[in-house]
Design a protein that fits this description.
Blueprint lengths: L16 E2 L3 H12 L6 H6 L10 H12 L26 H7 L3 H10 L2 E7 L5 H12 L4 E8 L9 E10 L4 E4 L10 E4 H8 L11 E7 L8 E3 L6 H18 L5 H10 L9 E3 L2 E4 H4 L5 H18 L2 H11 L8 H6 L1 H12 L10 E11 L5 E10 L4 E8 L25 H11 L11 H11 L6 H20 L14
Antiparallel strand pairs: 1-6, 2-7, 3-4, 3-7, 4-5, 5-6, 8-9, 10-13, 11-12, 12-13
Amino acid sequence: MAMAGLYRRVLPSPPAIDFSSSEGKQLFIEAIQGGTMEGFFKLISNFQTQSEPAYCGLATLAMILNALSIDPGRKWKGPWRWFDESMLDCCEPLEKIKAEGISFGKVVCLAHCAGAKVEAFRTNQSNLDDFRRHVIACSTSDDCHVISSYNRGTFKQTGSGHFSPIGGYHAKRDMVLILDVARFKYPPHWVPLTLLWEAMDTFDQASGFRRGFMLISRLHRSPALLYTLSCKHESWIKIAKYLVEDVPTLLSCKDVKDVKDVLSIVFNSLPSKFLEFIKWVAEVRQREDGGQSLSSEEKERLAVKEEILKQVQEIRLYKHVTDFLFTGNSGSCKESCLTNIADSICCQGAGFLEGNNGSAKGFCCRETCVNCIKANGDTSVTVVSGMVTNGTGIQQVDVLVPSSSSKTSGASNSYGLSGCIGMHPASNDVLTVLLLALPPQTWFGIKDEKLLQEMSSLVSIDNLPTLLQEEIMHLRGQLYILKRCKDDEAEEDFGAPLF
């Protein structure tokens, strides 16, 4: 009688040693005594199995993000914010991953987008001794974890390419503990570190590049407190290419005389729906979670957002961008304009709460209002509220809007960049920050030496306040990783650290 399906596999041993075997337990005890199992406990507290046969990269990353207590900033189910495989879709569609798996570079991209600090190395960009050093460093700490991309065949296991986290290290026997996320197939197991290096030092047939390892840790503060780039929108590849490749080419081909000419070249050729690419990180909550008061966390985050916004509006480049965008126009948006865009704001907020990264698609707002509530002392916070439906249910959404000191922060203009289209901060804030985030070499093609020096001074971030400087560097890193992610054209370059 034929038996349907497969129930696990027998772990080939040697070379692997089953974690739950007598020998595996002894290795575990000795490694704990040696101090090289510190990262194990947070990993095992978040250990999960991949929900699809090809989701090993997603399961591994979700497990480590949760072990590092990185807040995804959006809800998973019910009121809970938690990383799940289904939320890791910003760099590759889940259906494609389900069918084909995921490349080393795309896992790096996902980790960056999720808010982690990432250092990634292919085996041709590192060596065995460095790999051992990184494994020991992460195994003696609980704030850094190693993801290994390897070929199962080296361990005499069935299958080929696979991702799993390294759970610990045994120094005397030079062995690592692999917490295999395919728990339906193989249990956690110990393998010689040198053999794992051999398994990583193989070629991924899909990409044509070697496998490797990456170090995942927390950033010292949450990234993108106010601004972020979105690779959810269908045009992100075109926009990333335009900013990194086309803008420098245009500047080198044109005869630009002043800063206004430079801005005209950059802004006049922006791809359509550009503001879908760079977004303001909204402070969104369901109505029942907040009411007419702010939590201490909300007050703290809003205060930081307002400080960053203030810092943007105090730099010289902001004045140039504002003058260019709004000269000859009607001036600042009135309160009625904010009311008019409340529908869009609340729909974006509802999309954010459902894990759609701020997409308003499929949502309809039945009722909106704009109120002010007291935050600290005399400081008021604008709250845009709405009842939003997607056809199956209704959400009552609040979006908290940081105040802006700029009189022109919401002005309309002739370039389709009106701050009234999206959320505050407005287009002049957003575009100023984006110009700062472009690679410094963007402006090198300007032929007029005096103008080149002026632009270099305007876009320099060396003397910016720390908060704004960190915001710019995060955006620059996002832009770089998105550009490298484009069509896997620079897949091999993912091995190098971003900064």
